[in-house]
Request: fold
Amino acid sequence: MKKKYKILKWTLGILTSLIVLLVSLFFWIRSLVPPRDMDIESSQKNELVYLTENIPETRGKILAVVTSTDTMGMSGEPTGYELTELARAYYVFKANGFDVDIASPLGGTPPVVIDDEDMGKYDYAFLNDVSAQNKANNTIKLDDVKPEDYSAIYFVGGKGAMFDFPENATIQSIIKNYYENNKVIGAVCHGPAALVNVKLDNGRPLIENKTISSFTNEEELLLISDAETIFPFLLESKLIEGGAQFNGGHMYLEHMSHDENLITGQNPWSVWILAETMIKQLGYTPKYRPITGEENAIKVLIAYENEGVDQAETLMEDLMQNKKQPMDRLILAKHGIVGAMQGNIVGFVNILGLASHAKQLIEEEQKN
Reply:
């Protein structure tokens, strides 16, 4: 009886210690993330210098295409286009002298996915921009689009694109027309689903031997373990099956492929660079844009993945102390949690250490 009591006492002691450890870890992680800036939700276009000053004269028009699908197959889970993937590209195009129209397979008001944790001032400015919202909520039906009116086309991601982009005959026709007439084609995250079934005049797949990036199988399956049964295909696999040279980067970090007039991005964190690369491919130098704290955090995470903790900390110190640039600690903390989800405890600890280092640098700056 005494032996059983000791075992029970020992087990309870271990469980209590684990609970205390987990609670302490939770509050430590929480302390690394700054309080949410509630004022950001009221961001206005006219408050952002990038969108109000030194705008070139009109250079033409770009068509952005979003999904009309509001559920993920038979799962019943809601979906739509990703707001950040539209808003950021929309404003890059506008700031560089291009008007933007928004289309969708069905036209009208498309379903939208808004992830509060990913929203920045440009995204909220887009939500508060009457002109932008009028276009976003009254999209042109794809069948009514006049392809000749546009210099380029941009396919916005969002899981809904996996269902209504691949088999859409109008999408296939426009992409084929643009590719064979040397017009620029951009797509990000799940947006490259628009490319998978496009055939050229020679009967060959457009994606054959093209270097392409998109949301990867690894990224998809980490978030949705049964993605292979929910979606008609996994996008990375489908692109490879069609002959593409798939170019994948680190999970949930900025990554892009540029194959002549075909420009594709891996995930939502790739939108800024992809949109500005489209501007370059159209023959213009993108105007100066203040780099966001999210982008700087992504740079630090890429440095960590490629070169290790020391180089990541050195880059962070240069960005924050020397260049006085912002650093999004929430992005760092979230990627640490991604490491834990993958079972990468070393990565989890190291990346949270980077978030802690960023917090320390901010506190030191505030003291001075």
User: Anything to note?
Assistant: The chain has two domains: 43-281, 292-368.
